[in-house]
Amino acid sequence: MDCLTKLFGDVLLGDSKTGSEVKTASLATEGKVIMMYFSGHWCPPCRAFTPLLIKFYERMKAGPNADLFDIIFVSSDRNEEAFLDFYSEMPWMAVPFSFRNVKAELARKYKINGVPSVVVIDGFNGKLITSNGRHIIATDCDAKKFPWKPSPVQDILGADFIRTDGSRVPFSHLKGKVVALYFSANWCPPCRSFTPALIRAYNNVNKLKQAKFEVIYVSSDYNVGHFQDYFGIMPWLAISPDDSRRAALADCFDVTSIPRLVILDENWQVVCSDGRMAVMADEEAVHFPWKYQPLNTLHEQFGRYLNDAVCLVYFTDGSHSQMSMAKSALEPISKRERERAEAAEEEQSMHYFIGTPKREQVYSTLIKFLGLPNERPMVVIMDCVNRVYYYYTGSLQAQGIDLFVGNYWDGKLDKHDIKQEAKFD
């Protein structure tokens, strides 16, 4: 099955006037760029943005890249009548309203927390180009930067950096090192809270690893004064807020909020796309470079995944026997998913955790949040984006849990609604 069919299903609506269908697979051509337009008729900002997007679409279709560009509407409307009314204004394709499971999975996969949102993907391999397509429409209305793919990070970084004393450090200084890009700002309270922990970790790594680690502060400060005040406490390098590399790096790693710590290995490959919580849990740098593991013990540091991704949690009573049983059952499944994600150069579709009462805060909060019974061990799959969870009642060995996961992806499980609001970070 091609990547687009996996994302959108077998068919799309090809014409809002006639209701004709388009085979999704026919869109998967080399060089194609697809914008997904997450929107809804009930949303005033969506109704205001849609005419702007139509103008952008018409310019693209009248230009030299007409055959390499498409838009697909992914509706957040509450009923089919509203969907059809809104879609009748649009000249592009749409996910059929009845494909509610497709819409839910797209929203989860691309972390859609509000509309209107425009996500841009490569139409040939399905890889994300940017989740901030609205920025493209606002800043590149003539599509001079089409297909909007970010440059390799080493090409973006390839110039000097600043030290706190004002001296310059060449790009060659980074050769052979693990590099962390620290997106942060003086005005941001969570950033100021995290910075001391990162300083301690940085010093510990370079003490233990013979200076094979460098951090680059990518500033979002409002002015040079704020930048200098904040950067003055940091022992690493920086890119100033007026440096054009700042925006390019944010686009390259799809940074939409701060603080964010992107960790790269010596070959410029991403080791950890969001290392803040990992560093806070390991300031001694025992697990440097904090590569995300296929199977993890449930911990506050993984709040982003609990909030935004599909997670399987194997709850135990904390005893050695139950922890060992959970590890034996989940290790092969989680390792296989990690290998699949790395080969596809994408995030895991499901994240795997072992819960223990030793991490009482997140453990008890999650049980209360889901309204789970007191029995242990037990296994659940949770999807906070779509506010549902799935409770497993079969064998707690690897084969049974593997079947449970397969049935989840096939849509064969009975779901339970998550009735409470919670954030796990």
What would the keywords be for this entry?
alpha/beta, five-stranded mixed sheet, 425 residues
Explain how this protein is built:
The chain has 425 residues and is α/β, with parallel strands linked by helices. Helices cover 35% and strands 21% of the residues. It is built from 14 helices and 20 strands. The strands form 5 sheets. It has a 6-stranded mixed sheet. A 5-stranded mixed sheet has the order 5-4-3-6-7, with helices on both faces. Helix 12 crosses helix 14 (398-409). It is globular, with a radius of gyration of 23 Å. The protein starts with a helix and ends in an 8-residue tail after the last strand.
Query: Could you give the order of strands across the largest sheet?
Result: 15-17-16-18-19-20
Inertia-based shape: globular
Give the low-pLDDT segments. none
- The oligomeric status of these chains comes to single chain
Number of discrete helical segments? 14
Q: Report the strand count.
A: 20
N- and C-termini, Cα separation: 36 Å
Largest sheet: 6 strands, mixed
SSE layout:
Layout: H1 3-8, E1 11-13, E2 21-23, E3 33-39, H2 44-61, E4 69-75, H3 80-87, E5 93-94, H4 100-109, E6 117-122, E7 128-130, H5 133-139, H6 153-157, E8 161-162, E9 168-169, E10 178-184, H7 189-208, E11 213-219, H8 224-231, E12 237-239, H9 245-252, E13 260-264, E14 270-272, H10 276-280, E15 295-297, H11 303-308, E16 310-315, H12 320-344, E17 350-355, H13 360-370, E18 378-383, E19 388-392, H14 398-409, E20 416-417
Helix pairs in contact: 12-14
In short:
Helices cover 35% and strands 21% of the residues. It is α/β, with parallel strands linked by helices and 425 residues long.
